[in-house]
């Protein structure tokens, strides 16, 4: 894939030091700066006191965040911008700080990328199995991200004639919730690890859908899938597995579909040369540092797996996504 970036020393230095920006954002979110400031206009000393931080360090952080355009500074006082109020304050229903903290928890393993490249082995535990804070950031981050994407995606997939949805690896059930809201005749089973169950059931209850969405806990990698369905939704679970287990997951989902059933895969899909788009290519490295054999897959690879599992009428569904995720679907004869 042709790279149109005009590289020169300045551009390379900017890229090399870009982690300074993300570390500044991570620190501000971790210290809850934007929630603490809220609707107020505060001096650095007040913010330092509220975060139990040093006056010197807090002022430097606030100045850097202001330089990034996420705070406004005037006469020595700091105020949230409309963007930071909407996306980075915990008082907002659109808060995305959990996903930012998930990215923060990945930093150590990314700093060991060279070792993962040499050994082919991960540098961290998988988030779904890791300690409480890391798991919470992962699950809440996935929830927040899916809440933003789901309305767009659900509107592009016609399930009006479907009755029973399998949300495989569905985490908190965000997509099952939106599919059921869009299709009143639909029920769903969210199948995921036992550690996800309390959060999923709480989320499903919050949307008053406990009578239509059930959580089934289990390791779908090592075990079979119970029940029969007329649609299977696999969102961002295949990239955690190597090609063999990826195909096995697709086959398991196809096996529990009724004739005429639909399988829909939502993934970071690479082009067939596997050299773009950029985010899926970088995400493949994220899987290198975090899983034994996971990766991003190309459209051809996913299509071949679906074909080999007996799926027909394989096609892409066009969606708009901020992170280059895509959808490929097909039908069981």
Oligomer: single chain
Provide the β-strand percentage band: 15-25%
| End-to-end Cα distance | 36 Å
What share of the residues lie within helices?
Answer: 40-55%
For the residues shown, what is the average pLDDT?
A: 94
- Number of distinct beta strands: 11
**Secondary-structure element string:** HHHEHHEEHHHHEHEHEEHEHEHEE
With helices defined by DSSP (H or I, 4 residues minimum), what is the helix count?
14
Contiguous runs where pLDDT drops below 50 for at least 5 residues: none
Task: Give a brief description.
By secondary structure, the protein is of the alpha/beta class.
Model description:
With 333 residues, the protein is an alpha/beta fold. Helix content is 45%, strand content 19%. The chain is built from 14 helices and eleven strands. It has helices spanning 9-16, 19-30, 33-37, 44-51, 55-67, 82-87, 97-110, 113-119, 132-154, 174-182, 197-206, 243-255, 278-290, 299-308; strands at 41-43, 71-74, 77-80, 164-168, 187-192, 213-217, 229-235, 257-270, 297-298, 312-317, 325-331. Strands 4, 5, 6, 7, 8, 9, 10 and 11 form an eight-stranded mixed sheet that branches. Strand 8 (257-270), helix 13 (278-290) and strand 9 form a beta-alpha-beta unit. The protein is globular, with a radius of gyration of 22 Å. The mean pLDDT is 94.
Which terms summarize this structure?
19% strand; 14 helices; 8-stranded mixed β-sheet; alpha/beta; 333 residues; 3-stranded antiparallel β-sheet
